[in-house]
Structure formats: C-alpha cells, structure tokens
C-alpha cells in the first residue's frame, strides 16, 4: 500500500531555493533513504512531509501535492499527521522529567487516553530496550539513549509512517546497529513505511531505495544494488605509503578520474575498461617515485564511491 506520495514539492527561504520539484513514493514495508551533503535539503524535505512546513504554491503545470496514508496533507493536515511518527535531528526532551514522564507527555499530546498511555508506553520502552530506565531523568541519558527515547516518542501512537532525520548522528556504533534493528523490525513486522535521511553510507545500504539529493534536487533514485552498478569495474583500491604521494601519482594518470582516501587506503575511480592498465602502470610508477605499493587491485564499488561520483559529476 502506498503510504507516502509527494509530487512537485519545492521550498524557498527568502531568495534561497532549498528544495526544487521533489517527488517521492514510499510503500508500506519499505525504507526510503535520503542521502546528500549538508545543506542539500534533507531536513527541509522531512519537515515538508510531516506538515511542519508548507511547500511553495507552484504553478498550474506543477502544483504541489502530498498524500499521507491517502489523506491530503495540504488540506487535511491534522488528520494526516496522526499517521506520522517524526523524529527531528534535535529531539527535545524535558530533562527534569523521567523517561516515563517524557513518554507520557508525548502520548497524551498524541491523544492517547489515560487507560491506554501507560501500557503503550511500557510496551514501546521494552521494544526500544529502555524498560529498565523508566525512572531515570532524561537529563541523565546518554546520546544513544536520548535517540531511543526519541524513537519511542515517535512510535507511541502507533504511526504507519516514520520520518527520521539523521536519527543516529553522534551515537556510538553499537547504538546505531541497535537503532537500525528496531527500524527493520518495525518495517518488516508491522508494515511501517519509513523515510530516513542519513549521512552514513553503511546505513544507506540497508534501505530499500535511495534518493541522492544535491542542492535541493534529486540527482538519482534507485535500489542500492543498481546504484552500485554505475561504477562496476571502475574502482581500483590502492594500499601503500606515503598516501599523499600515491594520491598525487594516481591523479596524474590520464585514465584516473579521481582518487579518494578510504581509511588507510585510496579508492581510484577510473575510466571504464582501464583498471588493469592502471594497475600495471601504477605498480611501476609508484616505486620509481619512492613510494611503496602494498596492494593494488580492482575492487567492487561502495556507495561512498557512487555518492562522490554523483556529487562531482551528476547523473
């Protein structure tokens, strides 16, 4: 079932066009990932989708439309919002209140009656792994636990749609993994539709589909496996030292489009069909220039490679 359907969404702040002609569809049981650099328009997109912002009016040929669970968000805003669980980048807690008191507040704001809020709060705290912290004051929570409480608040009214704005930024890797396991369970077991913005490509690879956003425009949208095919056979991994020398020599090769640091090694994006020739040339040139090649080989592309290519070259 189609739960999110948006077309021709644009947003201008004064003279700055933050989002231009955005279109998306998300089905129940699907995770749509929105990725892009800072300032690309990801937060603006989510705020439009949850009704916190109104889109620009558009014109007769491209009027904005936004359907949430078959409700017109632009005309039936409050009814549509009832189907959404929204977790912004900066989730605000009442630090002097306990975990349970915070969650009770959000439950009552969402209209849960007294007979329902407590069992639902305890159910959702157990789901996010915080049942043992109900009496802890929110001001004493770690960053990861704050985000889990934010997710609990977004889920307390049993939404059919989740809008999450970079929900794992600043939390530790274990918490990130736990958080994503929760999202995958919600989508898989309860048929929730999720739209998530993320700066992490390992998280992006977990999504059903991805949209790459740059300067307020979607550059490309597809499943992760098909996006990776864009650079099939065009990535060469180079391990050695010193890395600045290796990067300079690699970039000097006419068939190397770019060389980017990936941890302790380089990923070279090369012309199609040139990988073997480049490997042979660099294996000779680098030692001649005083460098050391530990390993050089063709490598399957990663989403980071695709992302950098899209940012530099577009579609």
Strand line-up in the sheet with most strands: 6-7-8-3-9-10
Find the count of extended strands (DSSP E, 2+ residues).
14
Return the CATH class of the largest domain.
Answer: Alpha Beta
**CATH fold-level assignment of the largest domain:** Rossmann fold
Give the H and E element order: EEEHEEHEHHHEHEHEEHEHEEHEH
Kindly estimate the percentage of residues that lie in beta strands according to DSSP: 25-35%
CATH superfamily of the largest domain: P-loop containing nucleotide triphosphate hydrolases
Measured on Cα atoms, how large is the radius of gyration? 23 Å
Largest sheet: 6 strands, mixed
Percentage of residues in helical conformation: 25-40%
Oligomer: single chain
Main structural class: alpha/beta
List the helices and strands and how they pair.
Layout: E1 2-13, E2 16-27, E3 31-35, H1 42-49, E4 65-68, E5 71-72, H2 77-81, E6 84-87, H3 99-109, H4 114-127, H5 143-155, E7 161-165, H6 173-190, E8 193-197, H7 201-204, E9 209-214, E10 217-222, H8 224-228, E11 235-241, H9 243-252, E12 256-262, E13 265-270, H10 275-288, E14 292-298, H11 303-313
Parallel strand pairs: 3-8, 3-9, 6-7, 7-8
Antiparallel strand pairs: 1-2, 1-4, 4-5, 9-10, 11-13, 11-14, 12-13
Helix pairs in contact: 3-4, 3-5
